[in-house]
């Protein structure tokens, strides 16, 4: 199984952000932990602060991967273009947010992109990525995404 993990803006700096919201781990550490835990999964990882680059990766995903885990960062609240790209992508998709959005500012309550995914996980810091892998694997085995 091949899973693409996409992280949006500012997630290249998560270890420098508010630890109470984002945890204290650099994403490279999170990715290594995922690889150790899920040895049957081939992970690809891409992070960009650019909306267009994320959209290009989403467009490619259905041709290459069995599942997609996306943390669109702030684009979750603003990007109709990423939402539309996710709708086109026909593989299992889980959106992850490190922080608990329900406890954050009002503008973070509107998730445009999550409605184009199979589900979303919020507030569990790096554990969210682990749970997203389990969800993608289960969705992939239960459904036909062709």
From TrEMBL:
Substrate binds at residues 71, 77, 84, 98-99, 108. One of its GO terms (biological process) is amino acid biosynthetic process. Gene3D superfamilies: Dehydroquinase, class II (3.40.50.9100). The active site is at residues 22, 97. It is an enzyme of class 4 (lyase). The record marks 17 as: Transition state stabilizer. Keywords: Amino-acid biosynthesis, Aromatic amino acid biosynthesis, Lyase. CDD domains: DHQase_II (cd00466). Its EC number is 4.2.1.10. The keyword Lyase applies. One of its GO terms (molecular function) is 3-dehydroquinate dehydratase activity. It comes from the Bacteria. Pathway: Metabolic intermediate biosynthesis; chorismate biosynthesis; chorismate from D-erythrose 4-phosphate and phosphoenolpyruvate: step 3/7. It catalyses: 3-dehydroquinate = 3-dehydroshikimate + H2O. Homododecamer. NCBIfam families: PRK05395.1-2, PRK05395.1-4. Belongs to the type-II 3-dehydroquinase family. Catalyzes a trans-dehydration via an enolate intermediate. This is 3-dehydroquinate dehydratase. It comes from Ignavibacterium album (strain DSM 19864 / JCM 16511 / NBRC 101810 / Mat9-16). The lineage of its organism: Bacteria, Pseudomonadati, Ignavibacteriota, Ignavibacteria, Ignavibacteriales.
